[in-house]
Specification:
Distance between the termini: 91 Å
Largest sheet: 11 strands, parallel
Structural class: alpha/beta
Strand content: 25-35%
Shape: elongated
Helix content: 25-40%
Number of helices: 9
Number of strands: 32
Length: about 525
């Protein structure tokens, strides 16, 4: 008995019952809709059966291509969307290959896809973890560098606060029982050592060490903080350039964790017998199990140099020091006063100054003989420093008058590159040391008042009304003049003593350098 059956509906029902639904019940378009045949007819007609199978394959292939958007959109819908797309495709493809032995290839494909999905998940998790680890390491290194720099700052403070100047030995002390207590370090056996909490939530601590000595790879002990006066040409050939004029500083900053903050001691950070500096890894029992006494996350080493600012005017100094006598003009309404020092100093054989104004001192004019005893080079005047050292050491560097404040910082070293002109709009006022790499002009009506040392690597002009108290050293021409009021230059030993007292201390003479991350 022949039974007329709708092949497509039968397959869809079988798929819906056996494999579940995907997007509700579907019906075929075109060939499958309303096309009926008898099983006996198809059994007796192999060609018709083959045509039907080919047509069905073509139809589902087209449908599969339309549904590829499900897979293409996985980045927006997530892993769940991809799995959903695979399941739908598996259902359709399995329906297409229902009577075919090749259905197993679909299962394999789905398994491969699932493995790929799991691989993507694992790779993504690993990538995120690595990114987080790298970011954390970078933060810790930055913190270690900052902590190390703090050690350099305290080392500079230590040099400045020593009663014996210049410093000839680096030996920080600690004696809390003294009167007053001496607390220059937490561990004098190492050098300058300080510890402080960085993050209470994460249990992070910071520590910097400015070590007295260390051990090299060959096991030789060497001084870390050492005198570099000879290397910087500050040899002891003149009382103004004693040893201790320049020092090399190095600091190690560390981010670490303590196993037990209650029992931890700063002096037990390393094993006994340092250097070499070997971390104390003795196990300590904690609620989470045994932990090392200290765990270092990262360390960084920075270095710099410090120098004493030494001022040595030519031939002992006077109000105005000129490289050539013929280059000096003291015009009318100009006054140069040396008091107990010479008013004007210049070397012999360089001509005579033109003096129409007032010049006084003890003596009024000192002609240095032989001429070689008059030395006004930058290294000689500033204790071995070159111009580059002065720029680095300067409290203020400028190339334009407008870049300067109305009053220069008190007891500051100001380095000016260019040809500044101070006038009624911007006068020269302040106390300290002014170095001009160029020509300096104090113009009419500036009402300038400056105290300290002025070094001009060029020409110097001072006009009224103005007052400079201290020493002016000029390598080029010098001219002082006034109209109605005076342009005055006075040698003032009290001012110079104060400038040398406040500015002759140690100061950074080189930018801080990051050396390395320590072990």
């Amino acid at each position: 008995m022949e039974q007329n059956v709708l092949i497509w509906d039968t397959q869809e029902r079988d798929w819906a019952a056996g494999r579940g639904r995907c997007g509700g019940k579907r019906r075929a378009n075109g060939l499958g809709t309303g096309y009926k045949r008898s099983r006996s007819e198809s059994d007796n007609n192999p060609l018709l059966e083959q045509d039907l199978r080919i047509a069905t394959m073509v139809q589902y292939t087209q449908r599969f291509r339309r549904d590829r958007a499900l897979v293409a959109g996985v980045s927006e819908r997530g892993i769940a969307g991809l799995i959903h797309a695979i399941c739908c495709w598996y259902g359709k493809a399995g329906m297409a290959f229902k009577d075919d032995s090749r259905r197993g290839s679909v299962v394999i494909l789905v398994m491969v896809a699932m493995v790929a999905v799991m691989g993507l998940i694992a790779a993504g998790s690993l990538f995120l973890q690595n990114t987080q680890d790298v970011t954390t390491d970078e933060v810790h290194v930055g913190q270690a560098v900052s902590i190390s720099t703090a050690g350099l700052v305290e080392a500079l403070s230590w040099f400045r606060h020593q009663t014996a100047q210049p410093v000839t030995a680096f030996q920080p002390q600690r004696d809390l029982n003294a009167a007053p207590p001496i607390n220059e370090t937490d561990d004098p056996a190492i050098g300058i050592v300080r510890e402080f909490e960085v993050s209470h939530a994460y249990g992070l601590w910071g520590r910097y060490e400015v070590r007295v000595t260390n051990v090299d790879s060959d096991g030789h002990t060497y001084p870390v903080i050492h005198d570099i006066s000879i290397e910087r040409n500050l040899v002891q050939t003149d009382p103004a350039f004693p040893n201790g004029g320049a020092w090399y500083l190095e600091s190690t900053g560390t981010i670490f964790k303590k196993a037990n903050s209650a029992t931890y001691q700063e002096t037990s950070f390393y094993n006994a017998g340092f250097p070499p500096y070997i971390l104390n890894r003795t196990p300590v029992q904690t609620p989470l199990g045994p932990r090392p006494y200290v765990t270092v996350l990262t360390s960084a080493v920075t270095s710099t140099e410090v120098r004493r600012l030494v001022i040595q005017p030519p031939a002992g100094g006077g109000a105005l020091c000129s490289r050539q006598g013929a280059n000096v003009t003291i015009a009318a309404k100009a006054r140069v006063v040396g008091n107990k020092k010479p008013g004007l100093i210049y070397p012999t054989g360089t001509g005579s100054a033109s003096v129409l104004g007032e010049l006084s001192g003890s003596p009024a004019t000192y002609v240095v003989s032989p001429a070689g005893n008059y030395v006004d080079t930058v290294p000689q005047v500033f204790g071995g420093m070159q111009k580059n050292d002065l720029r680095t050491t300067a409290d203020l560097y400028a190339e334009s008058v407008t870049a300067l404040p109305a009053v220069l910082p008190e007891y500051s070293l100001v380095y000016f590159k260019g040809n500044p002109t101070f006038n009624s709009s911007h006068s020269l006022r302040g106390t300290g040391i002014l170095f001009v790499e160029g020509n300096l002009t104090i113009d009419y009506d500036s009402n300038s008042f400056y105290s300290g040392v002025i070094y001009v690597e060029g020409n110097y002009i001072q006009r009224a009304p103005s007052m400079v108290k201290g020493v002016v050293i000029v390598t080029g021409t010098s001219r002082l003049e006034g109209v109605g009021d005076f342009a005055e230059l006075d040698y003032d030993p009290d001012i110079l003593s104060q400038v040398l007292l406040f500015m002759g201390q140690y100061r950074f003479s080189k930018p801080t350098t990051f050396i390395r991350t320590a072990d």
